[in-house]
Design brief:
Layout (H helix, E strand, L loop, with lengths): L1 E6 L4 E8 L3 E9 L1 H5 L6 H23 L8 E7 L3 H18 L3 E5 H12 L7 E6 L4 E8 L2 E7 L5 H11 L6 H9 L24 H17 L5 H27 L3 E5 L6 H14 L2 E3 L11 H12 L30
Parallel strand pairs: 1-4, 4-5, 6-9, 9-10
Antiparallel strand pairs: 1-2, 2-3, 6-7, 7-8
Helix pairs in contact: 2-3, 4-10, 5-6, 5-7, 5-8, 6-8, 8-9
Length: 346
């Protein structure tokens, strides 16, 4: 079964063709990083306009690279939530147009479910159930993947997401956008024990995360150094901060694995590309006899191949939509598209 996937939730316009949810025939991404870099972050209105300009060419290129025509597709899958509403609407409306004009089934896909599915593309042998740490710029979840379309959140951030915490700390240190990626590179040359940072916990919710305190601690270090005229060793602060965030992510994730008895663990989302996180989880899983699945670096960020992959399983579960499909800025990971107000089925 051939699925054409479309992704436009933030600042990448992407399209891909995936076969049977596991094999990538093409994957095309038009990044907007250079456009947003001058503002230090994503500007929603600019993102929406750039998606509108790029989406036709990106879809055409994805079809061309796959060696398939639009008529060869069996369905169109599109990210409908969560994300920047204007950006999402570009992809959703384009996908609706394709579905209406061709008669192809339209499959709404939750962006974070797509990130989980990136592991199916990297590791074709991976099947549910497994435990997944979903870490991105806007979300940090510990998810029980009970089946391809049945997911349960057992841990989540109470404030900033891990990716957001990296980006904000990087900006405070004067690191250019995209901050989290650059911070990770700089941290490789720093001393992770140079600065003492707090170890955040959430009372009464041992699997939940909180990163706002860590971000504040970095701001305090920077402000105190400025007031005293002292030099901040940026590589050391990056390394110390990265260690604190990764330690928090890994500790709770392994705690969840112990509580649930999970033997298969996976990571997904933009932060899954973090070097230290990948090394630390690999070490912990080796020590505890668990199997770890990590997405290819090319699939950690936003892409349409993951949307097409998850779309395949949503389709098999009957998760198609009609022309009343809408886009939503926020929808929980464990809520099916058909249960969101305004959704419809064919």
């Amino acid at each position: 079964m051939l699925i054409l996937g479309i992704e436009s939730s933030c600042d990448e316009t992407a399209a891909a063709v995936v076969q049977d949810g596991r094999t990538i025939l093409s994957s095309v991404i038009a990044s907007q990083i250079d456009k947003h870099k001058i503002y230090g972050g994503v500007v929603p209105e600019i993102a929406s306009r750039l998606h509108s300009e790029a989406i036709v060419g990106v879809v055409q290129e994805a079809l061309a690279q796959s060696g398939k025509a639009l008529g060869d597709m069996d369905a169109v899958a599109v990210t409908y939530a969560p994300g920047l509403i204007g950006a999402l609407l570009v992809g959703v409306n384009f996908a609706k147009g394709l579905a209406l004009s061709t008669g192809l089934p339209l499959i709404p896909v939750h962006h974070l479910r797509g990130h989980v599915a990136s592991n199916y593309l990297t590791s074709p042998g991976l099947e549910p159930p497994f435990l997944c740490l979903v870490v991105s710029g806007g979300h940090s979840h510990i998810v029980q993947v009970e089946d391809y379309t049945k997911l349960k959140i057992i841990g989540r951030t109470r404030d900033d997401a891990a990716g957001e915490a990296f980006d904000k700390a990087a900006r405070a240190m004067g690191i250019p956008y995209p901050g989290g990626v650059e911070l990770d590179k700089i941290a490789e040359g720093g001393d992770p024990d140079a600065y003492k940072l707090p170890r955040p916990r959430v009372d009464g919710a041992p699997l939940d995360y909180s990163f706002s305190g860590l971000k504040t601690a970095v701001l305090n270090i920077l402000n105190n150094a400025k007031q005293k005229g002292e030099e901040v060793r940026v590589p050391d602060l990056c390394a110390s901060y990265r260690k604190a965030v990764v330690r928090s992510l890994a500790d709770n994730f392994m705690k969840a694995a112990q509580q649930t008895g999970a033997k298969k663990l996976a990571v997904a989302g933009g932060v899954s590309a973090n070097r230290l996180l990948r090394r630390e989880l690999t070490r912990l899983c080796q020590e505890t006899g668990r199997e770890l699945f990590l997405p290819d670096l090319s699939l950690c960020g936003d892409n349409a191949a993951m949307i097409a992959s998850q779309g395949y399983y949503e389709y098999l579960a009957g998760g198609t939509a009609g022309m009343n499909l809408n886009a939503y800025a926020n929808v929980p990971l464990d809520v099916d598209a058909k249960d969101v107000k305004g959704e419809g089925r064919r």
